[in-house]
């Protein structure tokens, strides 16, 4: 026997498919939505469909954008000779929020993961290599994550770029700012030691 | 400057309005949805709108349902002389999952909370009193939460029902099954002591 109305049950099931939303959160969300004004729910539904159908990949950097060229790639204020390679648009946004990076980006939409069956051809590497051959690029900063997949991808990209002679760098791994050493895992501590700089 | 496509930004903002979803979860959800097939996103949107417009309150118990009368109120297998009063449809579902309650319900859709400005007329109390006067009810089990609001509501309802002479009971407060005493708060421990039963 179903405890809820079939409409609500369907909604709970749909919401529970979303990442990070378990059965209880899905029920809480569903009841919250049912109690909203009809126009609020309709607006959310429209926004969902519009976002999905309206978004495209930037012709240059492959980030998700509304136009053929994203605002960063079309900006003349940015240094187009420096490309930071990131795994996804959220990582791009994270670096943009620092307000300290003036170059452009390249969004891979993933990382190489033999465990998940994601190979080099499944991420936007071909597009990166095309940019490097067509544009005048001075440096590629590899800013994939400090995870196994991120490191594997970084290694792969650096090998791929080496023959072109373009300078390749990797963002630093280490103790996060404000991080208390005793709470930091050993691998990070070791990385921080390895990456030490003269003062 | 916006870091994301305006479509994505709008979606993130809409999602971040939902309870329990912060800015970071909203961004993660938005990118997840953008990466889903268009029909998946459309199905979620349709389910949302259908649930909101298709759901109504049961004529008897006020729970959210698809029909005029919910499956529990229309079942002849249930004891219609025993009414359990709960705060919302999720609490009803929680008791249904126990599989040990054979009566019917009354859903208040809230609890009295002077702090939040929710008074007795803002919850479905009038509907409960109408049922008690029109139907042949033997017992009202008050199963509102063990919170300040739940207790206030329970007290209010029991006073309201007293003149009718109908038996009113309150579900027990105490140590949860499997609960280790040392981790239980003092109020609960005191309640468990107060509510002790002879063996």
Short description:
Two copies of one chain form a homodimer. Chain A is an alpha/beta fold and 199 residues long. The first copy, chain A, has helices spanning 6-16, 23-34, 38-54, 89-98, 125-134, 148-161, 186-194, and strands spanning 56-57, 64-65, 79-86, 103-107, 139-142, 167-170.
3D structure, described in words:
2 copies of one chain form a homodimer. By secondary structure, chain A is α/β, with parallel strands linked by helices. Chain A folds into 2 domains: 6-54, RecR Domain 1 (Helicase, Ruva Protein, domain 3, Orthogonal Bundle), CATH 1.10.8; 64-198, Dna Topoisomerase Vi A Subunit, Chain: A, domain 2. Chain A is built from 7 helices and 6 strands, in the order αααβββαβαβαβα. Chain A has helices at residues 6-16, 23-34, 38-54, 89-98, 125-134, 148-161, 186-194; strands at 56-57, 64-65, 79-86, 103-107, 139-142, 167-170. Chain A has a 4-stranded parallel sheet. The longest helix of chain A is centred in the N-terminal third of the chain and has 17 residues, at 38-54. The termini of chain A are far apart. The model of chain A has no long low-confidence stretch (mean pLDDT 90). Chains A and B meet through helix 1, helix 2, helix 3, strand 2 and helix 4 of A and helix 1, helix 2, helix 3, strand 2 and helix 4 of B.
């Amino acid at each position: 026997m179903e405890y809820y109305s079939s409409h609500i049950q369907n909604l709970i099931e749909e919401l529970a498919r979303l990442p990070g939303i378990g059965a209880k959160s899905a029920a809480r969300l569903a009841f919250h939505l049912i109690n909203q004004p009809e126009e609020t729910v309709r607006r959310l539904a429209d926004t969902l469909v519009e976002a999905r159908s309206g978004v495209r990949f930037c012709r240059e950097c492959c980030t998700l954008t509304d136009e053929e060229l994203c605002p960063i790639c079309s900006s003349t204020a940015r240094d187009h000779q420096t490309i930071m390679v990131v795994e996804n648009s959220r990582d791009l946004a994270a670096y943009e929020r620092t307000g300290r990076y003036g170059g452009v980006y390249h969004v891979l939409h993933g990382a190489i993961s033999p465990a998940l069956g994601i190979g080099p051809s499944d991420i936007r590497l071909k597009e990166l290599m095309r940019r490097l051959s067509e544009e005048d690029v001075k440096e590629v900063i590899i800013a994939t994550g400090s995870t196994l997949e991120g490191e594997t991808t970084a290694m792969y990209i650096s090998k791929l770029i080496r023959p072109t002679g373009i300078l390749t760098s990797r963002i630093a791994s280490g103790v996060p700012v404000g991080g208390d050493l005793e709470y930091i895992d050993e691998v990070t501590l070791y990385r921080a030691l390895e990456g030490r700089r003269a003062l």
